[in-house]
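C-alpha cells as discussed.
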C-alpha cells in the first residue's frame, strides 16, 4: 500500500472548512469538478517488470482494490488533513476500524485498559473476542483518571475510550489519559464518533490513534457504512496495513465517494444540529416528564467544565431519562411525528432510540445499571430539520409520556 499523504495546507494556509471541500483532491486527465469514482477491483501494468517493481514497492501505483484505490486515497488524505493526523486508512465499517485499531498491534499476553461506557460491539470485542487470543483487559470508569492509573500493568499496551460515550455522553479527560498512556508506553485510541472532527480534536489532546464510523456525521445521510483509522505513518505501516491487506475489510470506492461528498457540508450540518440539540436539551430538562438530561455543554452535565474545554459545542446528541420508565419511553417514541425511531445516529434526520432494548439490550441488567442505561433512557440524535419543528414534536411526545 502506497502512502502519499497530502496536506493541502502545505501550499496554502487553509481553514478546516476549505479542507473539508478540497483536501486530498486529485483530478484525472478529464479535469472533473466532482471527485471521480474508481469502481475497479484491480489495476494493470505496462510490463511484467513494472508489476514486479510495484509489488516490491520500488515503483508508485496501485495493486489491488483490497489494498488501496484512488477514490479511497482522496478520502484518506482529506480526513487526515482535517483531523491533524499523519495519515489515514479506511475500513468497511466503524466496527471494522475499531477492531483493526485495537487488535492489529496486540499479541497474546498484552493488556488493554478501556472505559466501561462503550458501544456494545466495542465491549464485545474487548470482553469476549480478544480474550480468546490471550489478550487481557480491564474496564474502568472512563471519567476517573485515577481509575486509569490504577489499572496499568507492566503488560499494558493500549488504552481505549469513547468521549462522549454511547449512550450516556460521559466525557473523558483525553489529555490526562494520554499522559498516563505515554508514561507507561501504551497507545491511546480515541473513538471520536459522537463529537466528530468538527467539535473535538483528540490528536491535539495527545491521542495516538483516532477511529471513526464514517456512517455517522461524515456521510450524514444514512446511505453507507464505513470506518476510518487515523494515526502515524509508522503505526499504519507496521500494524494496520498488513492487517487490512490480509484480512480484507476494504471500503468500497462508491462508499468513499459518498463520504467525500458528505464532508463538504459536515461543519454546517454539525453546527446546525448542535445548536438544535442545545435548544432541545433545555426544553426537555424543563419538562415534568423528565428526570434529567445529559448534554455536554449544559451546566448540569457531570463533566461540564471538561466538555467545555475539549469540545467546540455540546454536539448533536443528548440523552434523557423519563420518570415513567420503559412505558413512558415507549410512549414518547411512539408519539414522535418528525423524529424517527432508529438506532443509528449522526444523520441529517433526527433519530431517537431506547438503548436498554436496542443498542445495549445484550448487557446484563447490572451492567446496564452501572452504565446508566435505565428503562427510561432515550438517546436523541439531532438532525438538521427546523429547530422549532423539532421542539414542537419532542414536546408533544413528552406530553404523551406523562399520560
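Sequence:
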Amino acid at each position: 500500500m502506497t502512502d502519499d499523504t497530502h496536506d493541502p495546507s502545505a501550499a496554502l494556509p487553509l481553514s478546516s472548512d476549505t479542507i473539508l471541500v478540497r483536501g486530498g483532491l486529485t483530478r484525472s486527465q478529464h479535469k472533473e469538478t466532482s471527485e471521480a469514482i474508481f469502481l475497479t477491483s484491480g489495476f494493470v501494468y505496462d510490463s511484467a517488470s513494472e508489476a514486479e517493481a510495484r509489488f516490491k514497492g520500488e515503483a508508485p501505483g496501485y495493486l489491488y482494490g483490497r489494498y488501496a484505490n484512488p477514490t479511497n486515497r482522496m478520502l484518506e488524505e482529506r480526513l487526515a488533513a482535517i483531523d491533524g493526523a499523519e495519515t489515514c486508512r479506511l475500513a468497511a465499517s466503524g466496527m471494522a476500524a475499531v477492531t483493526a485499531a485495537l487488535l492489529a498491534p496486540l499479541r497474546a499476553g498484552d493488556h488493554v485498559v478501556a472505559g466501561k461506557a462503550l458501544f456494545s460491539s466495542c465491549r464485545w470485542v474487548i470482553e469476549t473476542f480478544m480474550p480468546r487470543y490471550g489478550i487481557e483487559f480491564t474496564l474502568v470508569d472512563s471519567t476517573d483518571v485515577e481509575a486509569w492509573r490504577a489499572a496499568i500493568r507492566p503488560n499494558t499496551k493500549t488504552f481505549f475510550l469513547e468521549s462522549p460515550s454511547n449512550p450516556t455522553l460521559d466525557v473523558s479527560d483525553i489529555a490526562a489519559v494520554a499522559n498516563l498512556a505515554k508514561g507507561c508506553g501504551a497507545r491511546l485510541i480515541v473513538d471520536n464518533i459522537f463529537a466528530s472532527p468538527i467539535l473535538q480534536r483528540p490528536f491535539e489532546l495527545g491521542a495516538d490513534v483516532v477511529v471513526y464510523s464514517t456512517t455517522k456525521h461524515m456521510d450524514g445521510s444514512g446511505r453507507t457504512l464505513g470506518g476510518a483509522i487515523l494515526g502515524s505513518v509508522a503505526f499504519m505501516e507496521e500494524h494496520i496495513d498488513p492487517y487490512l491487506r490480509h484480512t480484507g475489510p476494504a471500503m468500497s470506492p462508491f462508499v468513499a465517494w459518498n463520504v467525500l461528498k458528505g464532508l463538504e457540508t459536515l461543519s454546517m450540518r454539525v453546527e446546525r444540529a448542535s445548536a438544535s440539540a442545545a435548544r432541545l436539551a433545555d426544553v426537555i430538562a424543563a419538562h415534568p416528564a423528565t428526570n434529567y438530561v445529559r448534554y455536554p455543554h449544559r451546566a448540569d452535565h457531570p463533566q461540564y467544565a471538561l466538555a467545555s474545554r475539549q469540545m467546540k459545542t455540546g454536539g448533536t446528541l443528548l440523552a434523557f431519562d423519563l420518570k415513567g420508565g420503559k412505558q413512558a419511553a415507549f410512549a414518547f417514541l411512539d408519539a414522535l411525528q418528525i423524529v424517527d425511531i432508529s438506532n443509528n445516529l449522526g444523520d441529517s434526520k433526527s433519530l431517537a432510540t431506547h438503548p436498554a432494548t436496542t443498542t445495549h439490550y445484550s448487557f446484563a441488567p447490572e451492567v446496564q445499571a452501572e452504565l446508566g442505561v435505565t428503562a427510561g433512557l432515550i438517546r436523541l440524535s439531532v438532525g438538521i430539520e427546523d429547530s422549532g419543528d423539532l421542539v414542537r414534536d419532542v414536546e408533544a411526545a413528552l406530553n404523551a409520556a406523562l399520560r
